[in-house]
Design a protein that fits this description.
6 helices; alpha+beta
């Protein structure tokens, strides 16, 4: 299967924000649903930043539009964005990815926590494959809720992780990713991969280009915002503290909200081999992903901070997203 689909990302604030919404997602025929809990800090919706969640749903345009219409009726504080993705599943072959100048391809692989390849966790094997294939970097993110292999899976207190959904987010050249697709498809029982184009703003301390200044509304009347994504790790330091924490604090001090951070459990960047959690060094070498969402003006200000704090390491990308819904507390920022 090779189809144009929609990725609906819900950045949810509040103490218990998402149960009804995730129930709604899981009631529909969506290709993938994964819920991530923010690490350390998250998207600030008004004054709320308690235990924020990020829910990602991928499906056909009709199914996502149906879900979005019903989601608008829920009293959920948060921001919803829509992005076009190319969905690959079943038998996966090269698709002829052609990056435009200044762009790269972001590939997301969805699978279950219990998936393995010859008794080795699938996420480790996939990362090794991507590293060997010359992909610039990859981050493994573990979900706490969602759909894996067609079934709803949720984390249970003091229980096993069951087959919770997981995802690997990789960024690299279209050629390298295209060549890796058949091998990746052969590693998983039910391969599910999405592809998107992103603008590469900064790589390993080198400034390549600033984020776009797209604004206004799209053809559906949704506000066009910018999304910055910073790929770094707990090991990357700035003035004695992890870069991702320094970024969040500096952005907060500057009054820039719409920031969320997710800690990976495994991954790599550049030439360093894949690595992650270790029972003696838990969290010290895991990758981290920071997302900043906002208007073009706010993203420009956020990028100035991020540019300063990523002087040596890390990857920074940007893209334009459609804001499908904002909570009442942040409605004034929609346009």
């Amino acid at each position: 299967m090779d189809a144009d689909c929609i990725k609906l990302t819900s950045y949810l604030g509040g103490r218990h924000p998402g149960d009804g919404l995730i129930d709604l997602y899981c009631q529909h025929d969506l290709a993938a649903v994964i819920v991530l809990r923010s690490h350390g800090s998250g998207l600030r919706i008004g004054r709320s930043a308690e235990l924020p969640l990020t829910a990602i749903a991928v499906g056909t345009r009709p199914s996502i539009e149906t879900v979005l219409d019903r989601a608008r009726q829920l009293e959920v504080p948060g921001v919803f964005t829509r992005e076009h993705v190319r969905l690959l599943s079943e038998k996966i072959t090269p698709v002829g990815i052609a990056d435009k100048a200044g762009e790269a391809t972001r590939m997301t692989v969805y699978f279950g926590r219990q998936d393995s390849v010859y008794a080795v966790p699938a996420f480790e094997v996939i990362c090794e494959t991507l590293h060997r294939r010359g992909i610039a970097g990859a981050t493994v993110l573990a979900g706490v809720d969602g759909i894996a292999h067609g079934r709803r899976q949720r984390a249970q207190f003091l229980g096993s992780h069951a087959d919770l959904p997981m995802m690997i987010v990789a960024v690299g050249s279209g050629d390298h990713i295209d060549q890796a697709l058949p091998e990746l498809g052969g590693l998983l029982r039910r391969p599910l991969i999405t592809l998107e184009q992103v603008r590469v703003c900064k790589r390993d301390g080198k400034l390549l280009r600033r984020p776009e200044q797209a604004a206004g509304v799209d053809d559906h009347g949704f506000a066009r915002w910018q999304k910055l994504t910073v790929y770094t790790s707990e090991a990357a330091q700035h003035d004695g503290q992890p870069v991702h924490r320094a970024i969040v604090r500096r952005l907060g001090s500057a009054g820039i909200n719409g920031v969320t951070t997710h800690a990976g459990i495994w991954g790599f960047h550049g030439d360093r081999p894949p690595h992650g959690e270790h029972f003696l060094q838990r969290g010290h070498h895991v990758p981290a992903v920071i997302t900043v969402l906002g208007t073009a003006e706010r993203i420009s200000a956020a990028f100035d901070v991020i540019d300063e704090l990523t002087g040596e390491r890390g990857l920074v990308t940007s893209e334009t997203v459609a804001v499908a819904r904002a909570a009442a507390s942040s409605a004034g920022q929609r346009r």
